[in-house]
Specification:
It is a single chain. The chain is α/β, with parallel strands linked by helices. It has 2 domains: 101 residues, FAD/NAD(P)-binding domain (3-Layer(bba) Sandwich), CATH 3.50.50; 102 residues, D-Amino Acid Oxidase, Chain A, domain 2 (2-Layer Sandwich). The protein contains 7 helices and 10 strands. The strands form 4 sheets. The protein has a 3-stranded parallel β-sheet, with helices on one face. Strands 4-6-5 form a 3-stranded antiparallel β-sheet. α1 packs parallel to α7. The protein is elongated. The N terminus is likely disordered.
């Protein structure tokens, strides 16, 4: 390994599991593994400690449950429940992150072309426990008074969904992961080399 920091000992460079990419996905995976009892040595590699070009901090931080597949709906239901209690889950030494979650709801607009799909998907979502609502034009206009309703048939609205601060979410996962023993290494992975036929991998920096 090449490093600008103090060179670690050989044993400190051996990990049972490595995650390449320390954005919200990689950091969340590391947190959940550590929280659920993974007993090995784990490291998350992220080349940019500022995350200024990462998709995580450039995102809107939205969360919704209005999907048309069962797996996506169940995942989003779990995620919404998880983020509602995020501050408590990520508490470290009495400090809790604030992700500024705003449950303003999600709204999908329907015209003559796609209205039948919204109706179909809304029925499917409700069958899986999502409290989506079908609104007519007037009801939609009461939600968004400045909306142009010229070709509007109706809308599908999911109250309780919303958005949050993605950077705060990321930092919450990172801080809690470190607290649980995950190492976060800010270096770029340039090569992964397999060792024979087993599952041992080397990360060359």
């Amino acid at each position: 390994m090449r490093s600008q920091e103090v060179s670690p000992t050989f044993s400190e460079r051996i990990f049972d599991l490595i995650i390449i990419g320390g954005g919200v996905m990689g950091s969340s995976i590391a947190y959940h593994l550590a929280h659920d009892g993974f007993g090995g040595r784990m490291a998350v590699f992220e080349r940019d400690p500022t995350y200024e070009r990462a998709s995580t901090v450039l995102s809107m931080g939205g969360i919704r449950r209005q999907f048309s597949t069962e797996v996506n709906i169940y995942l989003s239901q779990f995620s919404l429940h998880f983020y509602r209690a995020f501050s408590e889950r990520m508490e470290v030494n009495g400090e809790r992150p604030e992700i500024d979650f705003k449950p303003r709801g999600y709204l999908f607009l329907g015209n003559e072309k796609n209205w039948h799909l919204l109706v179909k998907h809304q029925a499917f979502q409700k069958s899986l426990g999502v409290e989506t609502q079908l609104l007519n034009g007037d009801e939609t206009l009461r939600l968004i008074p400045d909306l142009n309703t010229e070709d509007l048939v109706g809308s599908s609205f999911s109250p309780g969904d919303g958005y949050m601060d993605p950077h705060s979410v990321l930092q919450g996962f990172v801080k809690k992961g470190k607290h649980l023993g995950v190492r976060f290494i800010h270096q770029e992975v340039v090569k992964i080399k397999r060792n024979g036929d087993n599952s041992t991998f080397f990360c060359l920096l």
